[in-house]
Design brief:
Blueprint lengths: L8 H11 L13 E8 L5 H14 L3 E8 L4 H9 L7 E5 L3 H5 L8 H6 L8 H4 L3 E2 L2 E2 L2 E7 L1 E5 H6 L9 H12 L13 H10 L5 E4 L2 E4 L4 H14 L15 H6 L5 E4 L3 H8 L7 E4 L12 E9 L7 H11 L2 H11 L16 H10 L2 E2 L7 H6 L3 H9 L4 H16 L2
Parallel strand pairs: 1-2, 1-3, 12-13
Antiparallel strand pairs: 3-12, 4-5, 6-12, 7-10, 7-11, 8-9
Length: about 425
């Protein structure tokens, strides 16, 4: 990876000499520096963007922000093209698990100094910070997170005499079985919800894949990973979710909306789809972190979300870094979390969403969040995901170790590039 270099003052003098009294490159008609920012569609609301842009430009009168929203579909190729051009934006929002593939181009600026000096990296959410760090250099600055929680039907819990959310796995299994005895379905868990499985594997101390001396190998056949799959099988058996499909086939929100399912595992955003299909459930939904093995901490979870990166070839790189520092700082993290119901980028900011039941449940889990293996080739694994058929094989009675070894071999091949 390219390390940062100190800019030569001569470059600025040369630019002034070449432009005379005219505009410098990157300035608008008022002589302000234009900082170009790419954000993903629906990442922020219009109101949040208006507040941030107005405040930032007031505090930095020599800067004008130019924000462009991008679609997730096809964004990988678009970012790669921008990084390879001489016209890259100054700040780009990227998925937290995408940083590795972009960093492999050597076209991302190393933000390690800012992460230590300005941004308090020590309590960043691990599921955002770790995938942003490549070979010891911080290329992605954590922005916001979201992760799975348990969405539950309060009335069905009460009918079964379950007073509140369970704190441990053992309590969770017992409560779910108790709900089943009332005639309701204690939980709906599809057989191929591999993101949820990943959390169970991490909770046991296992990994999806491990890296040694630059080589990645699948690790589903480790003793710890097999324990994670064993728990998944036990939990899944307490409901009628299909063994050979994921949570979108059929959509688990539609299944829950029928009103006879007590729990699903999903991000809180799934509540909107549930309520769309059954508005009567709106006041009956509750949320709690996925229970772990111990009562004092929730289960490990997969953390999705976004990091902010700055291209090496950004025209206004220094100003872009200042925008990143503002967006990742306490003031705008608090505003973003409360506006968008996101988890803020630091564990120390979890308190800003207290009182928001769903977001607070996410924040509790995010403290133990993880991301997928930090390999540029991990997307190749997901493209033809061997974890899903492995899960089905185990749920249908095949030997877990044999099935795990076969899936691990496929992961190793995909990660070998």
């Amino acid at each position: 990876m390219k390390k940062r270099l100190l800019a030569c003052p001569t470059a600025l003098l040369s630019a002034l000499a070449l432009t005379g009294c005219g505009l410098l490159p990157g300035q608008d008609g008022d002589g302000r520096t234009v900082v170009r920012v790419w954000l993903m569609k629906n990442s922020v609301s219009d109101d949040f963007l208006r507040r941030f842009t107005t405040a930032y430009e007031q505090e930095h009168p020599s800067v004008r922000l130019e924000v462009t929203f991008q679609e997730w579909t096809g964004i990988g190729k678009k970012v790669m093209a921008a990084l390879g051009s001489d016209d890259a934006p100054d700040v780009i929002e990227v998925g937290n698990t995408q940083v590795a593939q972009y960093a492999e181009t050597d076209k991302l600026f190393d933000l390690s100094l800012e992460s230590v000096r300005d941004l308090g990296h020590e309590d960043w959410l691990p599921g955002l910070a770790e995938p942003g760090s490549i070979d010891g250099s911080q290329y992605g600055i954590p922005w916001y997170a979201a992760n799975r929680v348990v969405i539950y039907h309060k009335d069905l819990f009460a009918r079964a005499g379950v007073d509140g959310p369970p704190k441990t796995r053992d309590e969770w299994l017992a409560d779910t079985a108790r709900i089943n005895r009332t005639g309701a379905q204690g939980i709906y868990l599809a057989g191929q919800d591999w993101y949820t499985l990943a959390g169970f594997i991490w909770e046991e101390g296992g990994e999806l894949a491990v890296e040694k001396d630059g080589q990645w190998t699948g690790a589903l056949d480790s003793a710890a990973a097999l324990k994670g799959m064993d728990f998944y099988k036990e939990l899944q058996s307490l409901g009628s979710g299909p063994e050979d499909a994921d949570e979108e086939n059929p959509p688990q929100t539609e299944v829950f909306a029928r009103g006879d399912v007590a729990q699903i595992i999903a991000t809180p955003g799934a509540a909107a789809a549930i309520e769309e299909h059954n508005p009567a459930l709106a006041a009956k939904l509750g949320y709690f972190p996925i229970p772990g093995k111990r009562a004092d901490r929730p289960c490990a979870v997969f953390t999705g979300g976004s990091d902010l990166v700055v291209p090496v070839n950004a025209g206004e790189r220094a100003e872009g870094i200042e925008v990143v520092k503002a967006l990742a700082g306490r003031r705008w993290q608090t505003d973003l979390a409360r506006t968008m119901n996101y988890v803020p980028n630091k564990t120390s900011l979890a308190s800003v969403v207290q009182g928001q039941e769903a977001t607070a449940a996410m924040a509790a889990g995010a403290a133990r969040g993880r991301a997928t293996p930090n390999s540029p080739q991990w997307a190749d694994v997901e493209a033809d995901n061997p974890i899903k058929p492995y899960m089905t094989a185990v749920l249908q009675g095949r030997d877990p170790r044999t099935a795990a070894r076969a899936a691990s071999e496929r992961i190793t091949v995909a990660l070998s590039g």
